[in-house]
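Ticket #4471: structure export looks truncated?
Reporter: QA, pipeline team
Priority: medium

Steps to reproduce: submit the single chain below to the structure queue and open the exported record.
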Amino acid sequence: MEFISPDISLYSQKHTSSESKLLQQINRETHLEVLKPRMLSGHLQGRFLSMISKMIRPIKILEIGTFTGYSTICLAEGLSENGKIYTLDNNEEQKSRVDNYFSNSIYKDKIVAILGNALDTIPTLNESWDLVFIDADKQNYSNYYDLILPNLKSNSYILADNVLWSGKVLDNASDKDTQAIMFFNQKVQNDTRVENLLLPFRDGLMILRVL
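Actual output as written to the record:
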């Protein structure tokens, strides 16, 4: 997942604003108690998500893939005064943990956590999004993209995580996840409705602006 040296990564973290105490707790407990903790955004990416959100000052954010709620809280930091973030996940086992984290957050009144299949949930929300973060099952990235784009006005933004997929996109690996990520990346690249930037940051982060 990491494409830069550990020393450079550590230096970057030391020169990046710190996490809140709650985010530190989520980070620590996820690595101690949850399977596949690498799915957590973590310090650097979390501060990046927070910074992007603060720059945009969105009213409505959609997050597809909650995991343990770290990125949700980071994105919530930039919401407008009356803003909301809707975060979707289908993992029932993590629901009580995530709800507890959210209830202890100063952004608890801005977070709407929905348990269920995102493909089924998104069409029912009937919202216009200012910022969308896609970080769920890779095989449905293109489907999520198709669902959300009609509800994004000009100068809205999409962030898509894991678009380098541990470098497997260069190997043209035949597994379904890699093929899905490659298809998504090319689909975005060919879409004249957006402009995009793929950052070789952590596991690859795509930023899209709707034209």
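Status: closed, not a bug. The export was complete when the record was re-opened. Leaving a note from the reviewer for reference: The CA atoms of residues 37 and 83 lie 29 Å apart.
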